[in-house]
Amino acid sequence: MGRIVMVAAIASGQGKTTVTAALARRFKRIGQTVRVLKCGPDFIDPMLLERASGAPVHTLDLWMVGPELCRQRLADAARAADVVLVEGVMGLYDGKPSAAELAREFGIPVLAVIDAGAMAQTAGAVVLGLRDYGPVTLAGVVANRVGSAGHARMVAESLRDIPLIGTLPKQARRLPERHLGLVLPDEVGDIDAILDELADQLTLDEAAWNALAPQALDDTLLPPAPVAPLLAGKTVAIARDAAFCFLYPANLDTLRALGATLRFFSPLADQPVPDGADAVYLPGGYPELHGAALAQAQGWQASIRAAHGAGTPILAECGGMMAVADAITDKEDRTWPMAGLLPGQVLMQARLAGLGAQAMPTAAGPLRGHTFHYSRLETDAAPAAHAVKHPSGAQGEALYRAGSLTASYFHAFFASNPEAAASLLLGARP
To answer: CA-CA distance, 251 to 243, in Å (whole number)?
Structure first.
């Protein structure tokens, strides 16, 4: 039975991921079992937090994941770990549902991260507002970018009855970022040294931390509903490398629960679609950063065209869709020919083109997920369907069908509707 806290802040950019990673690495290094969960749709932060904690990072979201699976994930983590950290998303009260709603739903105390780099006593007003606006139960505060011991004392005095549990100084080396978020951990040669530095720099009030009561979630949870083995006997080939890396662990778990055998391959390494694949899943990632390598990967391109020509169902989402369009034009205005299963050109742009929770209609009902991209597809192909934005109900991302290909900027969370995920990989029409 571990301590569970949600690491949240007033906004993005305050240092939530940095603090969560520092805490995870610190506790792991002293021999404690750590589990980290991520609130809201995200692929990149979980990769870093998995590196920091040594365990896969699952997603919590009251809408996309659903309350029951969220509760199951939390209960499993609490049973397995000494420390459970839930990283929030955006600001504590941002979004529908927000991180604050999730904290209240499951009684998770909030550890507020504040960027104290340009404030001192005002930190107290910010933190009291975070606590009382909802309200939420506040476990304490971690002040990021603190300049000195005196600065930390001023922050601590301003918090009144709320403990300052930890501080981090201004970091000489920051976790590198790019247009979709942090740079992938495997691309940073000294990522473990950076994580160790953060753990070393974190000043923690051990007494205040130890005063947090361990929590147990409901142990009388009903077991998850069994998933029909709709993909039993099927082999699903999944692209997985630096260009195709946006994979929810829950998606892989769901495919296995559906009975599928999973085989991974790397288009970047010019590996072909594995022989005997009954379906191909091309997840999102960063194909725009690897245009030259993908354009030169003639073996991969020939194999995906052959699979398409043979009628093998192909599900391509976001980066996967980009890689099977005719071409990608990157931010340096270089155009790279792609596999050409979907007519059209993908153009990278400086401004965000899509963001938010959506649901995609399928033959088996709506499949929940999200979208987040900085490119646009210019195509004459007519959409077969559109996702629906949550909570507005407005028209969302287009879904395209080209023979056995199903493609969209939409990222699906398979566990929200396993039957719908199976239907897409079996080639059903939306």
So the answer is: 18
